[in-house]
Structures are given as structure tokens and as C-alpha cells.
Amino acid sequence: MQHMMNRDFGKIGPSIFEANFSLILHIEDTQGVMMNTHWSSELQQLTRETLHNLDIFPLDVIRFKNIDGRFASANVDQLCSGEYCLLITRGDIVQLDSVDVLIEQGWCID
Asked: CB within 8 A of 36, min separation 6: which ones?
């Protein structure tokens, strides 16, 4: 954190803005830890139903989101053949064994 001269007292210390910004970041980090660790049961069930009925899915690609904030996509043909291979937005690939594992690891349809 960069320090600024306090004009009123002539002391070097963090500005009020910097101190408040630091506090806000700390609160957000703390709240992030306390947030949900899984999606709602309704979204989990919708994900299961969608992945079990892909033969009627109208698109070639399905989008996913993770509870940790990541996003991914998967080829519907691969999912139909039991290959749960997600391409994460940043370029990584995640290979999962089943729909249940996909959901357990925080993924649901977006």
C-alpha cells in the first residue's frame, strides 16, 4: 500500500481512501469464504435433467458455471457419448467422470 502525506498532521500514513479500500477488500474476501459452496438443489436437478436429455438439446455447445466463479463450455456430442470434458474460459480442460462428479465439483449449467 502506498503512503501519502497527511496535510493536517504532517505525518506519513495511508490515506483514508487507501485504508477504506483495504478494509473493503478484506470484507469481500471474508464474505467470499462464507458464501455458498454449492448451487441450489433446483439448479443441480436442472443440470442433471438437461445432461440426461441432451438428445433433444437444440444447440451444439452447452455452457457451465462453477460456484468458484469460473465458466466453461462443452460439446453436446461429447456429453451425449459420456465424455464430460469441459473447456474452461481461460483455456484449461477439465475431464469429469459423471454428471454427479460434475455437480459435486461445483459445475452447473449456465
From this structure: 67
